[in-house]
Amino acid sequence: MKDGSGLSRWPVFVALGMLVVISVVFLVEFAVSTGAELQKTPSATLDAASYQDEVLPLLADADPQRGAALVEEHNCIACHRMGAENNIAPPFQGLAARAGLRRPPLSAEAYVYESITHPTAYVVEGFSPAMPQNYPDLLTGRDLGDIIAYLLSPDAY
Ligand code: HEC
User: Fold this and answer.
1) What is the pLDDT of residues 36-51, one digit of tens each?
2) CA distances from 70 to 34, 66, 91 (A)
3) Contact 122/153 with Cβ under 8 angstroms?
4) Among residues 57, 65, 79, which one has the least CA distance to residue 153?
5) Any ligand 1 atom below 6 A from CB of 135
6) pLDDT (tens digit per residue) in 121-147
7) Burial, 54: exposed, middle or buried (Cβ in 10 Å; 0-12, 13-18, 19+)?
8) Cβ atoms within 10 A of the Cβ of 123, count?
9) Whose CA is nearest to atom 43 of ligand 1?
């Protein structure tokens, strides 16, 4: 009965196929998680002094008005202005006064810089880690300086 034995091999092929699929999924997951690990390493090694060294040149001739426009352009306000009422994200209003107290010894500017460039390094109590992590890819150094200058100005809201 050739036909019968041919059919009876199907479960073997199906099992082998599934094994291949599972292996591929596993390898991809492994590659992704290893990549994520590598990306996280720098933030773990950054400290108050290195943040300060990075953020001060950005603030040297920053333009807070341009920062205000960027905050709208990049939709920060969806969570931090519109969403603030529903506790989606902390409001920007009053950040200047709070920022320097959030995470000592980080200065206010170093803290805001870290919040945008390494959002998972510290999560504000009472909120989920919902802040997008790709802003460093979207913003130039000048953009960052202007945004930080705006957020630390009394006009921020
Ligand atoms: C999808 C929602 C969302 C968007 C969009 C978003 N954030 Fe956030 N952000 C959060 C949440 C939630 C937190 C609080 C949790 C945390 O610390 O990660 C946060 C925290 C912060 C903090 C710290 C605030 C504090 O009171 O300590 C700053 C600064 C900040 N975000 C800046 C920005 C900027 C600038 C942008 C746009 C370029 C932006 N965020 C876009 C959700 C968002």
Assistant:
1) 444 444 444 578 899 9
2) 33, 6, 16
3) no
4) 65
5) yes
6) 999 999 999 999 999 999 999 999 999
7) middle
8) 13
9) 131
